[in-house]
Amino acid sequence: MIYKKWNLHKIIYRLTQDGIQIELLKDSKFDSVTTGNTTLNTNGLTIKEGPSITKQGINAGSKQITNVADGINAKDAVNVDQLRSVTAK
């Protein structure tokens, strides 16, 4: 049962018999969302001391990129297996 309901722009707070229920409105828009060490904003996705995907590009943050499929087209990345097969010939 809902006792009170407030609409504060992007969030709905409901006081119920069980406590407080918090909901985001459908299609809510935020300038930035941070959870733990990860931030998502208009510049991209950044993990503190880790990888980032931003307007400037992809920075692996000195981390290994794994499970890369074989490149096929001229502008695709190659993986170590493909590189080894070329150097072995």
From TrEMBL:
It comes from Acinetobacter baumannii. This is Trimeric autotransporter adhesin YadA-like stalk domain-containing protein. It comes from the Bacteria. Residues 64-88 form the Trimeric autotransporter adhesin YadA-like stalk domain. GO terms for cellular component: outer membrane. It holds the Pfam family YadA_stalk. InterPro entries: Coiled_stalk_dom, Serralysin-like_metalloprot_C.
